[in-house]
Amino acid sequence: MTLLAVTDLRVAFAGRGLRARPVEVLHGVSFEVAAGETLGLVGESGSGKTTIGRAVLGLVRPSGGSIRFEGRETVGLGGRERRALARDIQVVFQDPYTSLNPSMTIGDILAEPLVIQGATRRDAHTRVRALLDQVGLPADAVERLPREFSGGQRQRIAIARALAPGPKLIVCDEPLSALDLSTQALVLDLLIEIQRAAGVAYLFISHDLAVVRHISHRVAVLYRGDLVETGPAADVTSSPEHPYTRRLLLSAPLADPVEQRRRREERRALAAAEAQG
Ligand SMILES: Nc1ncnc2c1ncn2[C@@H]1O[C@H](COP(=O)(O)OP(=O)(O)OP(=O)(O)O)[C@@H](O)[C@H]1O
User: Fold this and answer.
1) Complex ipTM over 0.90
2) What CDD domains does the database record attribute to this sequence (predicted)?
3) Is the domain of 248 the same as that of 226?
4) Closest C-alpha to ligand 1, atom 7
5) 118 and 207 co-located in one domain
6) How many domains does the chain have?
7) Which domain holds residue 66?
8) Are residues 89 and 37 in the same domain?
9) What's the gap in Å between 49 CA and the centre of ligand 1?
10) Same domain for 200 and 276?
């Protein structure tokens, strides 16, 4: 079942200078996310990945196109309707150091969305303990402040907070980029485990193809505000059709210097071929 359907999405930002025209950064992007699915969204820096995520969350107003959630148009929703949608669409941001309120205890951070939804303090308390357990944190975390936790633990707290309202979709915007490699693997596995248990869908934004390949069912490749390729993760990452995807794959860092050199040469050849049109 289609959960999210984005059709011909356009976003323009005000240009610099008094007479500057708006600058369009998404030029008509279309994709779908099914219930319980992970769609990986990849592309180089500045290609528009975060802008897509923010538009889906209602944080950026599109200049054109449609964003339907469970068949209902979400563009232009405000007030109560937008708040109701916020239960279904949650977000985990890149930086676990700035995304959690430093003066609130973990218990309060996790209970807040539940109480807003009308849960009693007692129910919220029980649910907070279950959420902490689900993300692998000890029950005594409720009394503590974000600064007492490592980056990986804070990202677990951010994931628990996103899960609290029982969403159907979580926009994960580079959720691993601020973490060291071994912590990245643990948090990635946690996200996969949560999906299996809760059936939540992810729009997983990342510039790291290895990570995206690992977690995604399908992958969409964004290049300068256009989707150039969408398909099953294994196909897009092993036999990409678009030259840009090939280039993106070839620029992924490798441990083997010989293979790294071979890929650099292949990349140069591709870039030269592209330049010649
Ligand atoms: N609020 C804004 N006002 C003006 N321009 C913006 C705004 N937000 C994003 N942009 C521009 O839109 C383009 C796409 O940015 P976006 O952050 O969506 O890219 P991205 O692919 O997520 O990049 P990164 O991987 O570096 O986060 C960039 O040129 C950026 O400078």
Assistant:
1) yes
2) ABC_NikE_OppD_transporters
3) no
4) 13
5) yes
6) 2
7) 2-241
8) yes
9) 8
10) no
Same domain, 111 and 207: yes
Given a cut of 90, is residue 152 above it in pLDDT?
A: yes
Question: 219 and 110 in one domain?
Answer: yes
User: From the CA of 204, how far away is ligand 1's center (Å)?
Assistant: 17
Q: Please give the distance, rounded to the nearest whole angstrom, from the Cα atom of residue 18 to the centre of ligand 1.
A: 20
Which of 15-19, 55-59, 134-138, 218-222 bottoms out in mean pLDDT, i.e. has the lowest?
15-19
What is residue 95's predicted lDDT score, i.e. its pLDDT?
Answer: 85
Query: Which residue minimizes the CA distance to atom 1 of ligand 1?
Result: 13
Q: Span 235-260, mean pLDDT?
A: 77
At 11-57, the pLDDT tens digits run: 999 888 777 889 999 999 999 999 999 999 999 999 999 999 999 99
Going by alpha carbons, the residue nearest to atom 14 of ligand 1 is: 48
**Phi, psi at residue 22, to the nearest 5°?**
-60, 145
Lining ligand 1 with CB less than 6 A are 13, 25, 43, 45-51, 207
Residue nearest atom 6 of ligand 1, based on CA coordinates: 13
Q: Which residues contact 167 (CB under 8 A, 6 or more apart)?
A: 87, 88, 89, 90, 200
Q: What mean pLDDT comes out for the span 151-160?
A: 95
* Ligand 1 pocket mutation pick from 47, 95, 208 by most atoms within 8 angstroms of CB: 47
